[in-house]
Amino acid sequence: MISFLWAEDENHLIGRNNDLPWRIPADLKYFKETTLGHPIVMGRKTYESIGKALPGRTNVILTRDENFEADGCIIFHTKDELLKWSKEQQKEIFITGGAEIYRLFMDVVDRLYVTKILHTFEGDTYFPEVNWDNWSLISSKPGVKDEKNPYDYEFRIYERK
Ligand SMILES: NC(=O)c1ccc[n+]([C@@H]2O[C@H](COP(=O)([O-])OP(=O)(O)OC[C@H]3O[C@@H](n4cnc5c(N)ncnc54)[C@H](OP(=O)(O)O)[C@@H]3O)[C@@H](O)[C@H]2O)c1
């Protein structure tokens, strides 16, 4: 099964200057807890913004650059190659961005994990359009708002109808 996991603001903003537009440690913790033990798939730009393979997960990077190398990561160069690999996995696979990669896999994704931040930020990268008629909300949980996580936000999970 293929899932997307991302965080977006009220305008579907997800990035700024190849980084996140906000700092919400509780959301990073959610990312870690949800993806630990599962393969994560990301575009080369998102990988470079993180800068290293994340521990406890198979890290997969998509790039057109045939010479690209990254310590501890599996590299694929096409969507087809990645989908073939994904069918051999027994686990839920998390696609973790960025916008180009979400757009590329929108037609095959089964489940969406979105942290909806009820606030607007400045940035340059937006989540692609979703046809919400195709999706059912199966869970929604408010995040903790405190000094370190100073926004209202919700952890939402959708499944394809
Ligand atoms: N809020 C969130 O949850 C979240 C999550 C992830 C990322 N982000 C943010 O999103 C931004 C990055 O997103 P982005 O859309 O600019 O970049 P991206 O999707 O992370 O990476 C784009 C790269 O992926 C590779 N790629 C794309 N399509 C491909 C294909 N069909 N075949 C092979 N390789 C392909 C290319 O790499 P090459 O150029 O090397 O060929 C392309 O430059 C950053 O600001 C990041 O912080 C936010």
Automatic annotation (TrEMBL):
Q: Which domain of life is it from?
A: Bacteria
Enzyme Commission number(s) from the entry: 1.5.1.3
Q: Name one GO molecular function term.
A: dihydrofolate reductase activity
User: Which UniProt keywords are given for this protein, alphabetically ordered?
Assistant: NADP, One-carbon metabolism, Oxidoreductase
Where the record annotates domain DHFR, the positions are: 1-160
Catalysed transformations (reactions):
(6S)-5,6,7,8-tetrahydrofolate + NADP(+) = 7,8-dihydrofolate + NADPH + H(+)
**Which Pfam families does this entry report, sorted A to Z?**
DHFR_1
CDD domains (UniProt xref): DHFR
- Which pathway is this protein engaged in? Cofactor biosynthesis; tetrahydrofolate biosynthesis; 5,6,7,8-tetrahydrofolate from 7,8-dihydrofolate: step 1/1
Which InterPro entries does the UniProt entry name for this protein? DHFR (IPR012259), DHFR-like_dom_sf (IPR024072), DHFR_CS (IPR017925), DHFR_dom (IPR001796)
Q: Which PANTHER family match?
A: DIHYDROFOLATE REDUCTASE (PTHR48069:SF3)
Family in the record: Belongs to the dihydrofolate reductase family.
Q: What does this protein do?
A: Key enzyme in folate metabolism. Catalyzes an essential reaction for de novo glycine and purine synthesis, and for DNA precursor synthesis.
Q: Supply the name of the protein.
A: Dihydrofolate reductase
Protein source organism: Lederbergia graminis
Q: What is the lineage of its organism?
A: Bacteria, Bacillati, Bacillota, Bacilli, Bacillales
